[in-house]
Amino acid sequence: MADSSAATQSPSVSSSSSGAEPSAPSGGGSPGACPALGAKSCGSSCVVRDLIFWRDVKKTGFVFGTTLIMLLSLAAFSVISVVSYLILALLSVTISFRVYKSVIQAVQKSEEGHPFKAYLDVDITLSSEAFHNYMNAAMVHVNRALKLIIRLFLVEDLVDSLKLAVFMWLMTYVGAVFNGITLLILAELLVFSVPIVYEKYKTQIDHYVGIVRDQTKSVIEKIQAKLPGIAKKKAE
């Protein structure tokens, strides 16, 4: 009886152990899998990556051209004028199309209905759960930024605070030459050009970046060695 009970129990034990085995690799995750933040976060980051790497030339060209025209318009006109002209242009297109479809339906005596009915029926309401998810994700970045600001301004690390001071000093010269809109235009040009150039000439760029990084590291180490507070902290 003991042998038979053991025999009957062994398949359940083996089945439970075999059922536990496939769940073990899921914790590590495959290299190409989305991170633990969720499929939506991974999907949005993948969309941005595809845009800046020109995976879809038409889509990237549309986004790049639209944002560039908007920034150039903001450089030439005020924000109120640009927004007003954009809204007027959009209303001109939608009203003209609405009147055109109404005339066509009256001539053909058809009953197709409203031309934008499919878009009017789309549910665009934001649920409270989605709102809280977005707020929680935003709060993570806000808290991280506040910790970084306190760390830099209260000089937790002298070298990092000196880096910020030097960067801000350089930005005073940049601000004397460029305004905010010009910097945004330059930033967009860099965002849509540097990644694709880096992807094409990755080996050569990594070589020179490594040289610059080694030189910068050696200079920082020399500066840290001359600062008494940093030297004492390293000795401890």
Could you please describe the fold and organization of this structure?
With 236 residues, this protein is mostly helical. The chain is 80% helix and 0% strand. It is built from 12 helices and no strands. It is elongated, with a radius of gyration of 29 Å. The termini are far apart. The N terminus is likely disordered.
List the helices and strands and how they pair.
Layout: H1 2-20, H2 25-28, H3 39-52, H4 57-76, H5 79-108, H6 117-120, H7 128-153, H8 158-177, H9 180-191, H10 194-200, H11 202-226, H12 228-235
Helix pairs in contact: 4-9
Low-pLDDT stretches are 1-38
- Cα-based radius of gyration, to the nearest Å: 29 Å
Quaternary structure classification: single chain
Task: State the separation between the terminal residues, measured CA to CA.
Answer: 69 Å
Anisotropy-based shape: elongated
Helix content estimate: over 70%
Largest sheet: none
> Could you tell me the strand content as a percent range?
under 5%
InterPro entries: Reticulon, RTN1-4
Organism: Jaculus jaculus
Pfam families: Reticulon (PF02453)
Main location: endoplasmic reticulum
Keywords:
single chain, 236 residues, 80% helix, elongated, Reticulon
What is the compact description of this entry?
80% of the residues lie in helices and 0% in strands. The protein contains 12 helices and no strands. α4 (57-76) runs antiparallel to α9.
